[in-house]
Each structure stands twice: as structure tokens, then as C-alpha cells.
Design goal:
Blueprint lengths: L1 H18 L9 E8 L2 E3 L2 E2 L5 E3 L2 E5 L4 E6 L4 E5 L3 E8 L2 E15 L3 E4 L4 E4 L3 E8 L2 E6 L4 E5 L2 E5 L4 E3 L4 E3 L10 E6 L10 E5 L11 E7 L4 E7 L10 E5 L8 E2 L10 E7 L16 E8 L19 E2 L10 E4 L13 E4 L28 H4 L28
Length: 409
């Protein structure tokens, strides 16, 4: 009996070591992935809630995105469509190897990112965007400077600036990380008299982002012209990343506007680089220096002219999608990451000024261990006894949810 049992154990170990890939039992769990569309991890189709380990290769296909929430709230990786990267833990820090596509990395610990052309080193509490194309690599520092190493030369990219490997230069598109601020929530209608109107801007949670050089512009859908504009010079988002333009009764309002100001749809809200003096009432619609926009209406089709403000094939936002327009606002949700002038991720929910949007959580799934057919023979080789297999429900480790409006460039 002892000999037979020992032989079975040796044979099982031999089979596992021979046929199972070595990375089935990785050493370091990085976090949890939330996906939209066709995404693979180590060339296997992934699902929201899967755990990502060191040495994992993640690939997003066209029109698919992924977000990796790092363990213990250490940071967030927002992965854009048609991207391939490998995540590695080296000397206790995260290293990402990006072979193509685009990735926004926000981390509370130091990070390193490698591309075919260069390497990026970032200190703790940094956020940056890296894009790899056939023409080279672009790096944008969002919250803090990052260091670029290329051809044995080191370059510092200041916060808000962008570096191009093709040009070998640092450029500042707007003098600050201004294009990281997006429209997050709009509540235009509460009844016959609107005293709780507001527009919420959000910087992705970075906090204290300067709004210098930005202007919030409101368009009327009947004329496709400006009816109000508000300078944001001298303003910043608060410590949580929010800035509220709204009526005096709105919680945490930063810039007060009169009651009954924001038009019911069809109408639009747009964020520009510029000043209010460039947008007097009656100014025709323009997309010059446009950062972000949201076009909304009730149940009727939005005005076609306003749709020029948003990206092609993006929908207008129906304020009354749930039939509760007077009690709900339009909120940007669960984009990974959000893209300027995209509107397909807006939902209608209870208003949340100065708070994270009231977004439905991504469903957690239990990930089953897929074994090859030969593995079914193991219990028989073990003398007929059932071999216990431990399956872990993904999401068992402590992770933080992705911010519902994590923006992108």
C-alpha cells in the first residue's frame, strides 16, 4: 500500500510538471482586471474580476479596453484598445513593458515603463500616459515629472508636458495638465423651477488641478449658438478632483450661476481652452480648442448641429432614459479610460455633486481553473481517491475600484 501510494504521488507530480505551464502558479498577484470587449491575459480570453499576476501579458483588441486595479489601492492601469503589454514585479516595484498601443498608469509607488524606443521612470504618486505607434513613443506626464531614458540620454518631462521619441523634444500642449479635466456629470432639469442645476468637472481624482486657460461654454440646441460662458482662470479642482459650476443650493458648488440657467435639451455643455470673451452669447458652434463636450436632450432626437461637438458615432445623452429625469442627472461611468468628447458611457442616476458618480459596479466573477483532459486521469492514478482542487474566487485580495471617470487623453 505504501509503495503504491508513493508511486501515485510521484506520477502525479511528474504529470503536472510535464504538462502544466510554469506560470499556472505565479508568485505575485498584482491586482484585478475590469474589461470591456475582447481582452486576453496570457492569450486566454479574460473576464472582469480575473486576478492579474506578475509576468502576465495583457492584450486588448480593437474597441476593447481594460483597467487593472493594483493591490491595496496602489494604483490603476488604464489600457486602451489595440494594446499589448506585460506586467512584471521587479525589486518590489511595478514594471510595464508596452509593445504597442496606449496605457495610462497611476501609481502610489515608483514605476518603470519600457517601450521599444525608451524607458520611463516615475516617482511615487505619479500619473502618465504612454502611446506606442509605428512612428515611435509619446509620453505625457500628468501629475508629476517623469524621466525618459533614450540612447543613453536622460530627459525630464514636466507635469502637463509631452515627449516624442520621433522628435526628441518636450512640448507643452496647454501649459498644464488641463486636458485631463473632463465633464463628469450634468443635471439640467428638476422641474418648473430649476434651483439644483450643476455641471461637474473631474480630473480623475488627482486633485488640485489648475483650470487656468479653460472656459465652460453652454450651447442652445435651437440655434446652435452660445447662451452662456464661464471663465475658469484662477480656479482649481478640489482635493478629490471635482469642480462644480451650479446653483447656490448645490452641495459644494465652486462657481455659482443663477437658478434656471442651464437649458433643458436639446443643448450641450462644452469645455474649451480659451476665455469667456471668445464666446459671447450668439457665438456659433466651434470645435477649435475644444477639450470635451456632452450633448443632451430628453426623449427627442438631439439637434444634429450640436453633434459636431462630440466624436463621430457617439450618441447624444437622453436625460430621461429611465423616465425619472426630474430626479436624476447624467453621469459618466465605467470608462477605462474615458476619452474626450465620447458620450457612450453616460448613465442616468441619482445626482452626486462633488462625489464619485453613482455607477453600477462591475460584476465580479469566479474564475474556474481550466484543466486539460489528461488531468482527469489524476484521481484514477491516485487510487480512485478524489484529488482536492482549490479554486479561488477572483477579487479575494484587497483592491480599490477604478474611478468611474478616469480620464484619458
Amino acid at each position: 500500500m505504501n509503495y503504491r501510494g508513493g508511486f501515485s504521488v510521484v506520477l502525479i507530480v511528474s504529470l503536472i510538471s510535464t504538462f502544466m505551464p510554469l506560470d499556472v502558479f505565479p508568485q505575485a498577484a498584482l491586482g484585478e482586471v475590469i474589461i470591456s470587449g475582447n481582452v486576453t491575459v496570457n492569450r486566454i480570453k479574460a473576464a472582469s474580476g480575473n486576478t492579474i499576476f506578475s509576468e502576465s501579458e495583457i492584450e486588448t483588441f480593437p474597441n476593447a479596453t481594460a483597467v487593472v486595479n493594483l493591490r491595496r489601492g496602489a494604483g490603476v492601469l488604464s489600457i486602451e484598445p489595440s494594446t499589448r503589454l506585460r506586467l512584471i514585479i521587479e525589486e518590489g516595484h511595478l514594471t510595464a513593458r508596452l509593445s504597442r498601443g496606449a496605457l495610462t498608469l497611476r501609481s502610489k509607488t515608483p514605476t518603470k515603463l519600457l517601450t521599444p524606443q525608451l524607458s520611463v521612470n516615475a516617482d511615487a504618486d505619479s500619473a502618465y500616459l504612454v502611446t506606442v505607434t509605428s512612428g515611435g513613443t509619446e509620453v505625457e506626464a500628468i501629475t508629476r515629472p517623469v524621466r525618459i531614458a533614450l540612447n543613453h540620454r536622460s530627459t525630464v518631462v514636466p507635469a502637463g508636458a509631452r515627449y516624442s521619441s520621433a522628435q526628441g523634444t518636450v512640448v507643452r500642449p496647454c501649459g498644464s495638465p488641463c486636458q485631463r479635466v473632463l465633464i463628469s456629470e450634468v443635471d439640467a432639469h428638476q422641474g418648473d423651477y430649476d434651483a439644483m442645476e450643476f455641471i461637474e468637472l473631474y480630473d480623475g481624482g488627482f486633485g488640485n488641478t489648475s483650470l487656468n486657460g479653460m472656459v465652460l461654454v453652454l450651447y442652445d440646441g435651437q440655434t446652435d449658438t452660445v447662451y452662456a460662458a464661464y471663465d475658469l482662470d484662477g480656479r482649481t479642482t478640489n482635493s478629490n478632483g471635482f469642480f462644480i459650476v451650479g446653483n447656490a443650493a448645490v452641495s459644494g458648488v465652486d462657481l455659482v450661476i443663477p437658478d434656471n440657467t442651464i437649458h433643458d435639451g436639446p443643448a450641450a455643455v462644452a469645455l474649451y481652452q480659451g476665455s469667456a470673451s471668445q464666446f459671447p452669447p450668439g457665438t456659433p458652434l466651434t470645435t477649435k480648442n475644444l477639450i470635451d463636450a456632452m450633448v443632451y436632450s430628453m426623449n427627442d432626437q438631439a439637434d444634429a448641429g450640436l453633434l459636431k461637438l462630440i466624436n463621430p458615432n457617439q450618441p447624444w445623452v437622453n436625460e430621461n432614459a429611465n423616465g425619472r429625469m426630474l430626479a436624476e442627472s447624467s453621469q459618466r461611468c465605467n470608462c477605462a479610460p474615458c476619452r474626450e468628447r465620447d458620450t457612450d458611457r453616460y448613465i442616468q442616476a441619482r445626482p452626486t455633486p462633488n462625489c464619485l458618480n453613482n455607477c453600477p459596479p462591475a460584476a465580479k466573477r469566479v474564475t474556474a481553473l481550466r484543466l486539460p483532459l489528461w488531468a482527469l486521469l489524476i484521481p484514477l492514478l491516485a487510487g480512485g481517491a478524489g484529488l482536492p482542487v482549490a479554486l479561488a474566487a477572483s477579487g479575494g485580495d484587497t483592491t480599490e475600484p477604478v474611478s468611474p471617470t478616469s480620464p484619458r487623453r
